[in-house]
Amino acid sequence: MSDLPGIVITGATGRMGQMLVKTVVQSGKARLVGAIEREGSEAIGQDIGTLCGLGPLGVLVESDPLPSFARAQAVIDFTAPAATLEFAALAAQARAVHVIGTTGMTEAEIEQLAPAALHAVIIRAGNMSLGVNLLTQLTKKVAAALDEDYDIEVIEAHHNQKVDAPSGTALMLGEAAAEGRGVSLKDVSDSGRDGITGARKRGDIGFSAIRGGDIVGEHDVMFAAMGERIILRHIASDRSVFARGALKAALWGQDKSPGQYDMIDVLGL
Ligand SMILES: NC(=O)C1=CN([C@@H]2O[C@H](COP(=O)(O)OP(=O)(O)OC[C@H]3O[C@@H](n4cnc5c(N)ncnc54)[C@H](OP(=O)(O)O)[C@@H]3O)[C@@H](O)[C@H]2O)C=CC1
Ligand SMILES: O=C(O)C1=N[C@H](C(=O)O)C[C@H](O)C1
Fold it and tell me: Does any ligand 2 atom lie closer than 6 A to the CB of residue 129?
């Protein structure tokens, strides 16, 4: 048997799940040892390779996560907040690295990851691409260089099936801008404008969300002042950028001590 790290993909038939299966299988750097979907899913018992158009891989979709987590070195999880919390406890029990791409988690939910991180490595990021993580650093730098004469707006666009807003990436970029400015995002965040909102408050960081068609993920950070605008932009045109980042994180986490990490740690930015 190969000594490549074994990886389980949760939500394996989802948009990201299928991309992750392909990325892991084609990487030559890891083995796919499990594919999880919820109880009652039509995919249970079917070969995940066949479902993803790769041909049979001998890995059947299961609904009980623990047995497959127990034979894995890492779990890559792009599902939904409630599921991710359950997977975190089980991945910790199995001492498997837990790579979390799930977005839309509340602060309270994120705090609930702490007990699992005492026993296992958790790597979580609202965007696993190299480009976006680099953009957070650029955003922080530009925000630190400019004063509040420059209004900061984060504009994001995603496909029509996305369930959370602002996107995880938009929040990462907003956090980076706030950090650059030396303020706390929760004190200056302005999202969901509608109706008679009053004039923009100086120093606020605004968020706008577009949802439509098959847009993979687009993010602008705009610094708008009198007479000029600076726009930092990232466009993801293929989900493979997220999957490659997640696999990199799963491999990076293998020799790390238990705790919580992000993609800035993984990429050494
Ligand atoms: N960090 C990053 O780089 C990226 C993050 N994301 C995030 O990843 C998440 C998933 O996105 P996407 O793939 O587009 O969504 P999908 O809805 O296509 O896929 C999610 C999958 O997870 C499954 N799932 C949900 N709950 C459970 C559960 N309790 N047990 C097992 N499986 C479950 C869903 O099954 P079912 O259909 O039955 O609910 C579905 O198959 C989102 O939060 C998204 O924002 C996306 C891209 C990049
Ligand atoms: O749901 C998506 O599709 C995406 N979600 C992430 C987010 O919330 O930012 C990352 C990417 O933009 C795609």
Answer: no
